[in-house]
Each structure stands twice: as C-alpha cells, then as structure tokens.
Specification:
Length: about 725
C-alpha cells in the first residue's frame, strides 16, 4: 500500500521515535544554515542519542544559532536582560550548547561548513569536523556524507484552497537536499524528510513554495511556534562607513547587487541611500575623500555617483535586512522576469517593466517566436501568468472564451487578433521580481517587516536555491544560464575579507595554522561569477588594519599561509583608503595599487619587501597623494558630517538601548586595555575607589543594577564600570 505523506505529530519525542523506527539507529541529520532548523525536532533526536549510546547521530549543518552567554558576573549583568528581551521564546539547540561546553557524547558528531566568525577557533571538535565546501556544493556534500534524515522549519498557508508549505528563510540548500531525499525514497532507501511548522516564519514565495507531501512527517502544535532567532545589527564605525561609501560608487543604475550581513553591508546600503536621497551631500563626502582625483577612473568606468532612476535588482545568497531598507528607499526597483522571452525584450528596452500591456507586447513576443501565431495552451498560460492576458479567460480546443463569447486564438486572423487586443489584454505586466535570494537571517524587526508586507510585495521576492543565486552554469530546475545572464546585467558582487596579500590573493575564512574562522560560504561562487559575466565586477572589502590592545597590524600583507580567493581571481579590493582595481593587471601594477590603499604606517615596509623579491621596480615610490592614509584624517573628514546627524552608529536601528550602547562600548574598550596591560588600569581603579559617583553615571549603573551596591563584589564592579565609562569619555 502506498504510504500517505505527510504524517502529522504534535510531540517531538514521538516524532524522534518515528524517525528511528523508519531509518534505524545510524542517523545522519542534514539541516540548513542558520534560521531554518526545526529546533524542537533537532533537540528530540539529540536527546534520544544522549539516552542511547547505540544510536549513532551525525549532524550536518552550518551556523547553528545561539544567544550570547557570559563568563563573569559583570558580563551576566550586562547580557542577561538583553538576552531575555531579544531572545525570549527562542528554543536553544541542545547539541550546539553541548559543543560549546565540550559535553558532546561520543556517539554524536557535529560537522558544519560555516561558523559565526571566530566562534569556534579554540573548539577541538568543531575544528576537526569542519567541512570546507562552496555553498553551491553543500547539499551535494551533505548527501555524500550519508544524509538519511532531513530537517526543515517551514511556514504554512492556504493557497487557492490547498495547504502549502514555504521553505521561507532557507530555500538555499533545502530545496536540493529534500529533492535528493525524495529520489533516495524512490530508490527504496530508508530516509525521512521532516518539517516543523512555525507560524512566526514569514511565508515567502517563488521556488520556496512546496507541497507538504515533500515531507514524510510534520511537527506542529500550538506550543511549538518558538521565537525566531534575531541577530542584532552591528554598530557601524567610520572605517566601515568609508569602505561602504567607496563600494557604493561602483554600483551602476540599472545593475545587479549582492551584499552580505554585518556592519560593512549596512554601510554600503547607507551609502546608497545617501547617494539616492541626498545626492549633493553624498558627492560632497566623496569630494572631501578625494575620490575623483584618486579613483575617478574606476568609478566612472565601473560605477557612478548619481541617483537611481532605473533602480537595482538583487541576486544574492542572503536577503539581508539592508536590502529591505534599499527597497523602501526606492532603490531596489529594477524588476526581472523568470522567463527568458520577456527578459530579453526588457533588456533590449523593447518593453518596459512598469508599462501598461499593449498589443505591441504580444506582437513582439510573436515576432521573436516566443509564442506561436496560433496560440497553444502553453502560450495562453504564459500570457495569462504574466498579466499580458487578463484573468478570467479560458482556453479550450484552440479557442479563447471570456465567458460571453468565444473566438479562435489565432494571431494570423485579423478578426481574432482584434478581438483579443480589444477585450482580453491585461492592464500591466505581472510576476516582476526585484530579488532572488537563497536565505535570510537578521534582527527581529526584519522578520516583522517581511510578515507585514502585503502578499503582492512578498511575491516580488523569489526565495530560491543557491544553485540559482550563486552560479551561472547548468540549466538547473530553477533557471537557465541564458536567463541568469540576462537578469544579472552590470552585476556587482561585494563581499568581505580578512586580509589581502600583495599578490592580490585574499584571506577570508581561516588562519595559516588551519583553524577555521568562518568558512568560504558563497564567496568563491560570487568571485567566479564576477569573472564569468561580461559586465560584472567583484569587490572584496578589507579593513586595512586590525588592533589587539596597543598593537596594530596591517591587513594588507606581503604573504600569508592561507588563501580563500587565489591571485588569478583578483578583481577589486576596497579598504577605507580607497579602491584598488586589480583585474588583468601585472604583479607590479597590483602591488602598486594595493600599496595606495594601505595604511601609511605599513606602506614602506611592504614596499621594501616587494622590492627585495624583485616584484616591483627598485626605484618605485608611492605617490604623495596616497601617503596620508591615517585613520585620524578619515575621522576628521567624516566627523563634519556626523555633526549633522549623518552616519549614525546604527543607521537602521538597534535592539540595544542607549545605555547598553554606551556600556557595551566602554566595557569592551576597558577589557582590551586590561588585556594589554593590567597594571595600566590599576591607578584609575584606585582613584575610583575614593571618588564619588557622578550624577551622569546613574542611568548606566541602574542598567547594571549597580546603583546601590551592597556586597564587596558589587562595589568593585561598580568602580570598574565607572572607570570604563570615564576612560571612554562618557562621564
């Protein structure tokens, strides 16, 4: 008898028992990156493994989300109220908590292909079980590592009278992984595809919409709709803003954009907003930074500094919060169509995205043989889907009916064509999309915005597989190579790196001792696309220096023992000191361009290394206009605009209160100073012991529950907070 799918469960433990009965005691659980994990099911199957040492559990995933934890009483006082406020109702993943505490049982293995940056540098289990893979290969590699159970968080909705699921936040690898499980099921293998419904998850459209029978079992109950993990926005400092401003000059109106999460992504978005909404101010900042004199050539060739009339389309692995702010600002408004025939006409400017439907649209499609002169059922469905023919019409036996009359669907017959054009055309083109994305993750208010969008607005975002967003080749189930090339015109793929070598090679995901910082993710995919698409460019943003206490090091280095992006794929490097155009340049030209955007404290040393290796002329000198690359100069330039309430610390809002922002920054700087030299903080701490508490410190002490200390420990902590605030200039 054919098994009915899916079976519904309300108890996670019962579902876990079902899975064990179905596949056995050797379970390899595949789950997507980030938000879309079925936390209750994951915890239930992990619990079974803890209780039964004969059950072998391997978890294959990436970016297992966890709220921050504390290691001291002072950290607890700062973090605990924040954790309760931001992550209240989130269900922690027990396996990652065990990994963090180094309490994972021997019969459980966790292997991830991407970490939160720096999250597991000193964790033996995670470093040894890290799987290095390109994002586009993740589903394949999970399959090849023996996945027999797949788990996914889904949204649920009635569409046209039928219950449908949405992969929502994670169509990225899930669509392909569950397709693989389906084939394995057909081949008679013992597998289980599991979904957990969460009403808080936005119902996203496009390729994300799937039939529930894709899954063997579904977990759903009123008490299982947990709070989605909110990732608070990072603060944006002056260096980030200036890097973002440079990146914003490389983006052309009418082009395509990919950016990532974090302060640099927010800085780019803010730069684009200023460019579009306050163009005069934007160009004044660029003038003060001497952008035209230093980097005008690449800005004029590759990008622009004007407003966005046609707008931008997004093709990105990650739908970040910043994209929605660009959408609200009227920048993300270039729509594409998931139909090669329509898209070709749009690219050729024969039809406009926002134009009214006219007879010319039908005739243009017929002229390029996109539809037959005698319309077939397929032609009719296509024309109706995209709004060229209005809804309510029917097609039967080669004839079109509007409910009142019927006529031949024949464009060669003048009478039939006149009737079609007179009474059957739609009003405007439909199904336009301004974003293709694989996954999303962001602050809680980002999910609220998605949930509060109209259905029509959400339908303009196609959540799809990374096989669509992250590569061109292969006519996969989601799109053809031809269509992707048509849609991604003037593409700008912008990502972040840790270091750049003078060869142009970039370090983004690991250290030279082989420890993994994060993972390659989709970076290689976008670098490769930037080279494969004729009018595309790829840029990697790198902060020119890093500091540990008083020690400052250059992130532009002569050489390093680890590479993420090899030198032959070098393209554009952006630091806070400018833009280095490396594509197609000789080694000497590459070195010269990178030295121009290096912090001046390190320029001469790097130049001498290059000369010693005979990679640059022995008589070469760095031009004078690039010899004033100091952070103080940048702070001075941007400071004038900050005084006018531009370039705020959190351009798109924050989950932190004003007191938390001040306390967090002050304590972080104090901790760095103490780590550099404990003796350096002693005099100030002694001074605080005898000093009175200033009135302006009261709100900060109240937030830390240290306004009325009673124990010796509380009194010491109060003095530490006061000293940190004083050193930071807050009191």
């Amino acid at each position: 008898m054919k098994e009915e799918r899916p079976i519904y469960f309300t108890d996670p433990d019962e579902l876990a028992d079902y899975v064990i009965d179905k596949v056995g005691k050797n379970i390899t659980l595949g789950m997507c990156l980030g938000l879309g994990k079925p936390n209750h099911f994951a915890n239930a199957i992990y619990k079974k493994a803890k209780e039964d040492p004969d059950l072998q559990l391997k978890i294959l995933t990436a970016l297992s989300l966890e709220p921050p934890t504390w290691s001291s009483e002072l950290e607890r006082r700062f973090l605990e109220p924040l954790v309760k406020r931001v992550w209240d109702g989130y269900v922690n993943l027990d396996y990652i908590t065990a990994v963090r505490k180094k309490e994972l049982p021997p019969n459980v293995q966790v292997a991830e292909f991407f970490y939160k940056a720096g999250g597991f540098l000193d964790n033996e289990h995670m470093q040894q079980n890290y799987t290095s893979t390109n994002y586009t290969h993740a589903a394949r590699d999970v399959r090849d590592n023996g996945m027999n159970v797949g788990g996914q968080l889904v949204a649920k909705k009635e569409l046209n009278g039928k219950t449908m699921f949405s992969m929502s936040s994670n169509s990225d690898t899930a669509l392909d992984a569950f397709r693989t499980i389906g084939q394995m099921r057909k081949d008679g293998k013992r597998v289980a595809a599991i979904a957990q419904v969460n009403k808080n998850l936005p119902f996203m459209y496009g390729d994300a919409v799937v039939n529930p029978n894709l899954f063997d079992a579904v977990l759903e109950a009123p008490d299982l709709h947990f709070t989605l993990f909110g990732a608070p926005r990072e603060s944006v400092n002056s260096i980030d803003y200036i890097i973002g401003l440079y990146a914003s000059t490389l983006i052309q109106d009418g082009g395509t954009l990919q950016i990532g999460i974090g302060s640099l992504g927010d800085a780019i978005a803010y730069g684009l907003q200023i460019r579009h909404q306050q163009n005069e101010v934007y160009n004044k900042v660029l003038m003060d930074l001497s952008v035209n004199e230093k980097f005008g050539d690449i800005v004029h060739r590759v990008g622009g500094t004007g407003t966005f009339e046609e707008g931008i389309y997004g093709s990105t692995e990650m739908l970040v919060d910043a994209f929605l702010h660009l959408y609200k600002s009227g920048i993300m408004k270039r729509k594409v169509y998931d139909n090669v025939h329509l898209q070709r006409l749009v690219n050729d400017k024969k039809i406009k995205v926002r134009q009214k439907v006219t007879p010319e649209v039908v005739e243009l499609l017929a002229a390029q043989n996109s539809i037959h002169s005698r319309l077939t059922r397929k032609d009719f469905d296509f024309l109706q889907e995209y709004g060229i023919l209005k809804s309510g019409l029917t097609y039967e036996n080669g004839k079109i009916s509007d409910g009142k009359e019927q006529f031949e669907a024949d464009l060669n017959d003048q009478n039939s064509k006149d009737r079609l054009f007179k009474s059957c055309l739609g009003t405007e083109l439909k199904e336009g999309i301004w974003m293709h994305a694989g996954f999303f993750l962001g602050p809680s208010d980002f999910y609220d915005v998605l949930n509060n969008m109209s259905e029509e607005e959400r339908m303009q975002i196609n959540m799809t597989s990374v096989l669509h967003t992250n590569q061109l080749y292969g006519n996969n189930p989601y799109s053809s190579e031809e269509l992707k090339l048509l849609q991604r015109k003037k593409a700008r793929f912008i990502n972040a790196g840790l270091m750049v070598m003078l060869s142009g090679a970039v370090v983004s995901d690991g250290l030279e001792d082989h420890r993994v910082v994060s993972g390659v993710g989709g970076q290689y995919n976008f670098v490769a696309q930037a080279h494969a698409i004729e009018d595309a460019r790829g840029a990697l943003m790198i902060r020119s220096t890093r500091a540990k206490g008083k020690d400052v090091s250059s992130n532009v280095v002569f050489n390093y023992g680890h590479t993420t992006v090899p030198r032959h794929l070098r393209d554009i490097i952006i630091t806070e000191y400018g833009i280095a155009d490396l594509r197609g340049k000789s080694d000497q030209q590459v070195i010269a361009a990178l030295l121009n955007v290096t912090d001046s404290r390190f320029q001469e040393g790097l130049l001498q290394r290059a000369k010693q290796s005979k990679k640059i002329s022995s008589g070469y000198q760095i031009p004078d206009q690039f010899r004033n690359n100091y952070p103080e100069r940048l702070e001075s330039i941007l400071g004038k605009f900050k005084e006018k309430n531009l370039f705020p610390i959190f351009p798109f809002g924050t989950a932190f209160t004003e007191e938390e922002i001040v306390i967090g920054k002050s304590l972080r700087e104090f901790k760095e100073k103490a780590a550099d030299s404990k003796m350096a903080i002693v005099p100030g701490l002694i001074g605080q012991m005898v000093a009175s508490v200033p009135a302006e410190a009261k709100p900060y002490l109240e937030r830390m529950q240290l306004d009325n200390p009673t124990t010796r420990q509380e009194k010491i902590m109060q003095k530490v907070v006061l000293l940190a605030l004083k050193n930071a200039g807050q009191i």
